Amino acid sequence: MNVLTSTSNSNFTRASDVEIPDVYNRRFKTGKEDLDSVFGGMGFLPGMTFTLAAAPGTGKTSMLVQILELLERQGKKTAYISGEEGIEQLAFTAKRLGVTRVPLANLTSIDAICKEIKKQKFDFVVLDSLPALTTDQDMNKAQAEKYISDTIVQTAKENETVIGTILHFTKTGTYKGSTLLPHSVDCNMIMTRNKEDDGLRDIDVTKNRFGSTGFVSFPITETGFDFQAVETERPGMKSKGPTKQDLVLQALTNTPKGVQTLINETEISAGYMTTILRNLVNENKVIKTGKGSGAVYSKK
I need a labelling partner for 75 at 20 to 30 A (CA). Which of 15, 17, 93, 258 fits? Predict the structure, then answer.
């Protein structure tokens, strides 16, 4: 049994005398530093559960199937289980994103899903989505919601499987369906469109029992996420020190430069640089001359 399922200890024990279970030393990462930072930088703990909530069309599926693909390439066993889209539609999306290894399935019964998780011994499973999940048990709506929530958490921890569940937002910005699961899981994330750049998605981690919470912005294109974080200001927070945009402006202070030169001088990745330069041009702070790899940028 995963230690995360153990009951609480009513005895008072000094922290130094508590033995840290081995499961905490078996975390695994995606290999993408900025993406791993979303989960506290320490990786996924076997048996942890999380939710990802966002409005329709924001990029939830894209982000999660790409995470699964990264883990598959490291030898982890994953699955994307959808109760909303057929595997043909999912496969079409996966092809566009360059995802080839992730197993796909259409299931809605939480009982059948958890039976497969136990049988297949998955390391990481995504459930799409909470409102689509049902149970074979004879229960009223409130009972079923609690049963589904409890079963997800219990199955994850007993089988040391990371389970992520997609949630939806209504037009009023509230969760669609029960809020029992967000309260029960170990980590909650919210994805929104960046208000300044529709090509960015803001990921806000509002709860994380096994790591830190945080905020990050990722560019998204037709081919999905590159998981290279772009520095943006968290709503309601003031920026600390110079941003990467400031560094680019400083590099352009005296001399027009090409993209590769700016990358070399600022040590900003190509993914960051493309977005930053586009923003600076749109903000009329930088002038772009030429096209493609031969384009040159100068400060106004």
Answer: 93
How far, in Å, are 28, 202, 224, 260, 300 from residue 247 at the CA level?
33, 22, 26, 14, 15
Burial 27-63 (b: 16+ CB within 10 A, else e): bbbbebebbbbbbbeebbbbbbbbbbbbeeebbbbbb
Phi, psi of 118 (to 5 degrees): -65, -40
Q: What is the pLDDT of residues 186-209, one digit of tens each?
A: 999 999 998 888 889 999 999 999
**Do β-strands 49-54 and 187-193 pair in parallel, antiparallel, or remain unpaired?**
parallel
Q: What angle do CA 118, 114, 161 make, to 5 degrees?
A: 60
Most confident of 16-25, 145-154, 266-275: 145-154
Beta bridge partners of 200: 219
Is residue 2 packed enough to be buried (19+ CB in 10 Å), middle (13-18) or exposed (0-12)? Answer: middle
- For residues 152 and 181, is the Cβ–Cβ distance under 8 A? yes
CB 61 within 8 A of CB 84: no
CA distance 138 to 75: 39
pLDDT at residue 279, rounded to an integer: 79
Contacts of 254 (CB under 8 A, 6+ apart): none
From residue 165, how far is each of 49, 82, 120 by CA, in Å? 8, 10, 18
The verdict on whether omega for the bond into residue 8 sits within 30 degrees of 0, i.e. cis, is no
Domains and CATH numbers, the chain: 21-225 (3.40.50.300), 244-299 (1.10.10.10)
